[in-house]
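ok so heres the complex, two chains, lmk if somethin looks off
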Amino acid sequence: EVQLVESGGGLVQPGGSLRLSCAASGFTFSSYAMHWVRQAPGKGLEYVSAISSNGGSTYYANSVKGRFTISRDNSKNTLYLQMGSLRAEDMAVYYCARVRNGLLHPNDYWGQGTLVTVSS
Amino acid sequence: DIQMTQSPSSLSASVGDRVTITCQASQDISNYLNWYQQKPGKAPKLLIYDASNLETGVPSRFSGSGSGTDFTFTISSLQPEDIATYYCQQYDNLPVTFGQGTKVEIK
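and the predicted structre for the whole thing:
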């Protein structure tokens, strides 16, 4: 059974940093690209970042470019999102999602999400 | 970025009704369009991919159609368990972008 479990969310002050993790199981993690998608409270879904299966290619939404870094450790079956210079508008539930085939394909499995709260 | 305009933003229908949601892309995205269902407090779930293909295990009352810039999502007979917010998503180009969502309620 495919499972994606996010962790690392919590309360952080504006300007602070946080690292999210997404532990994958039930599939060959190293064969799949991954996305981070977020959802602000009461709002819709917003793409954050993407990474290819081998980690060689990464992409970012303009809203997080230069502040967030996506990475992965295929030996640990884990995806990461390092978030810095956090702003109030970054407050959201962050989901990791598997990409079915390649970097641009449907997100066929999602984690349960981890909440990031940015507040002083 | 490709803009996805989804409508309506919410709707209320009776059990058994046919429900239709539309999604319009700001440029031609061929059939690179997915539909997701999100129930409160839960992660999105893929229902339809490539505009019209039903994901494995998804009930056949859900369907999708369209290509280019105009797409339609249909629930042929609304069930109580279909109460959720539905999103379209284009994946023709990065960044993938989502519609604003349609909240479906029971009348």
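quick notes: The mean pLDDT of chain A is 97. thats all i got rn
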